[in-house]
UniProtKB/TrEMBL annotation:
Keyword Transcription (UniProt): yes
The name this protein goes by in its record: TetR/AcrR family transcriptional regulator
InterPro entries: Homeodomain-like_sf, HTH-type_TetR-like_transc_reg, HTH_TetR, Tet_transcr_reg_TetR-rel_C_sf
One Pfam family it belongs to: TetR_N
Keyword annotations from UniProtKB, A to Z: DNA-binding, Transcription, Transcription regulation
Gene3D superfamilies documented for this protein: Tetracycline Repressor, domain 2
Domain HTH tetR-type: start-end pairs: 13-73
Positions of the DNA-binding region: 36-55
PANTHER family assigned: HTH-TYPE TRANSCRIPTIONAL REGULATOR BETI (PTHR30055:SF234), HTH-TYPE TRANSCRIPTIONAL REGULATOR RUTR (PTHR30055)
A Gene Ontology molecular function term of the record: DNA-binding transcription factor activity
Amino acid sequence: MKRKRLTREESRDQTRERLLEAARAMFMKKGFVATSVEDIAETAGYTRGAFYSNFDSKSELLIELLRRERDDLQASFQSIMEEGGTRQQMEARAVEYYSQLPLEDDFFPLWVEAKLLASRDARFRVRFNAFRNEKLEWVAAYIKSFSERAGTPLPLPPETLALGLVSLCEGMQFFRMTDPQTVTDEVSKTVLAGFFARLLLT
């Protein structure tokens, strides 16, 4: 069977996807700083020129990887809302999903890399903080919407809860990543589910 010839746009999209996949693998293996543009291009099977035809820098590519992970999270949160059901069913799904986040988020090391880069690079810090604020805004919107649908009053403003819950989740992910013998999967789930339930479901 004759292979379909890719359009220019399809070829560009394919190149971009391969570069993103290669970058993610290399960042996870070597770290952001130790990974060069050449490493990414070579792993993807392209040249340095192909990289710069798609991305201005490694940091731009890192933001794109994090953006995709955030979009996946948004879709998952939205599905919880759209499933509907009784208050108890919605609460159970929300608690289960939130408490499972650290166990399934293999992107977390990339978030750590991005935070370290933001602490050292003022230009990247501006972009990263804007991106992070977008995440906090949609988490706050989700919390508010969930509260309204479940008929549960919030003990604090949704923006405050969003910052607290995201910080707690990231903190548990860090402990679990660096000390998995102490912070086991079960411990992580218990802590997150307990705080989530106490803050949003009382």
